[in-house]
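Input.
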Amino acid sequence: DRRLIATEIGRDTIRDAEGSKRRVVIEVRVGGMFTPGRMQARMQLETNDALRPSLSVPIVLEAVGDLRISLNPIYVRYPGATLPFRQEVVLSSRTGKGFAIRGTRSKDLPPIDVTYELVAKSRPDTWRVILAGKSPEAGKEVRGTLTFETDIEAEPAFEVQVRGLVPRAQATAPQRPSPESAPASSDRDRDK
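Output.
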């Protein structure tokens, strides 16, 4: 059973009919079945404000299932172009029930090796996942998905967004000798 957690849009200050300012917290609860993960939507609010009778407010919803991951999305820290990288995350069960990872597949990602192991045999509900490989070319932005295939009947596929940016190479300017490192002229050379 997939649940949607309550999402707080945020706090705002409004003026009431008497002109006093007060803080307002808007909370959105949505029922129904959703695929686990983050979703973006917009909510239209009707107001009695003559200048802004209607407000379009962006909201982010997060549907939760049996699984959770320590970083979502996973931000890969690429050290530089074509250099090896390694990123570790933890995939675990919200319910504490053990589960198995049957495999992984990626979409729109550069070649990546994904390995996984139980954190401890006494914890069949927690897996250490290691992403490794070689960074793509400099300046490339990485955006894609990694899907974990599991033996959980209600959640046989758990999809996670993967992001990253390969830093551009730093250009180095030719070095000029500093005044301190220039050969000193002697008084004798000046007199000539």
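Residues 117 and 128 are 5 Å apart (CA to CA).
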